Amino acid sequence: MRRNARIRTTLLVIGSLCVVGAPTVAVATVQQRTAVSGLPTPSSGLAAANSVALGQFGFSQGSGLLWESDALLARDLDGMVAAGARWVGVDIDWPHIQAGGPNSWNWQVTDRVVHAAQARGLQVLGTVVYTPVWARPAHTSDKHAPNDPADYARFVRAAAERYSGAGVDAWQIWNEPNISAFWQPQPDVAAYSALLISGADAIHSVDPDAVVMNGGLAPAANVAGVSIAPNDFVIGMYLGGIGGHIDAISMHPYSFPYAPSTPESWNPFYMLTYTHLVMSAFGDGALPIWGTESGFGTGADKQSVSEGLQAIRIGQLVQAWQQLPFGGNLLIYGYRDLAPQSASVWDNMGLVRNDFSSKPAAAAFRAAVVGAQPKAREPRSCIRSANIGAGRRKGC
């Protein structure tokens, strides 16, 4: 009965969010709605959520790190450390590791990157992606959902047995499942929720205190067959039963070329307050939101910014993140530009150029993050067990 009431309240909240099409909505409005609905305010009481320190920063470089030479990998990771990073995102590439079938294993490429990061004191966010040929329908890409979530769960469990506590400190299940570019044939929140639950449970069966979250959600509008807006997707995941299985919500709060604080309903960073309101409605207000990708690119297209403005925006992004009472860790995409002489914003997201020469944003990032005080958290299993009614674990 309580759960049904909570769901009804959440749907009312979402109804009000839809009205937020209004370009500017003050946080005070959220707090007013919250007071009316009886939900906790987004700023109230973010409880201890996991054993991984929060309020830290790092870089997500996509899959590129896996395929670099030893020399380039070393330069990238050394540069990240020098910039003040404490985290790095690493893809755990299922299609590569099990390319030969369900009984084949090739961990060498992933081992190299995880161990190199660990040797430099970088904590690793492992993102388990995508689908090998044998586990998906014929004539589809690796972004197609697995035929059987159990195949994915078995792989995730094997990855956790290899890396949990030995290099990988937190886990994402897939990447941007709310858009068809990364979940094919089209976004399906119910199917993804089942995959998330099975993957999270597989990791927790190996390490009960592991930090597991959904694949970071891309900025998107609701377009049938193409994309689902992030907050709508979060609601769908909770309606799909993810509560009690995850340790954080992961978002990709890009706002480029505009400032992260831009008060617009299309701005994923600005809408994080609403994301946390939804989490609270489903009983997960104690969990943090991680920003597992965000940044600003310096290419020549209409979404790009100048190098000087990139430095300003990166400073604004870090400062705004530090002010979020529910903020977990934030990873900037990315550390180094992907390609030289490219006009694409995505090829020029780095704080250093492709040749490793620094943009002004590199110094701005370091100045913003050095001295940032991490927030310690108790083991997440303490909170998860309480959320699912099992009582708190001994020692919590």
How is this structure best summarized?
The chain is 37% helix and 10% strand.
Structure characteristics:
396 residues, alpha/beta, TIM Barrel, eight-stranded parallel β-sheet, 12 helices, globular
Please give a structural write-up.
This protein is α/β, with parallel strands linked by helices. Helix 9 links the parallel strand 6 (249-251) and strand 7. The chain has one domain (43-387): Alpha-Beta Barrel (TIM Barrel). Helices cover 37% and strands 10% of the residues. Strands 5-4-3-2-1-8-7-6 form an 8-stranded parallel β-sheet. It contains 12 helices and 8 strands. It is globular. The protein has helices at residues 2-19, 27-37, 70-82, 94-97, 108-119, 149-163, 189-206, 230-239, 272-281, 307-322, 360-369, 380-387, and strands at 57-60, 87-93, 123-129, 168-173, 211-214, 249-251, 289-291, 327-332. Mean pLDDT is 86; it is low at 17-50 and 388-396. 50% of the residues are buried.
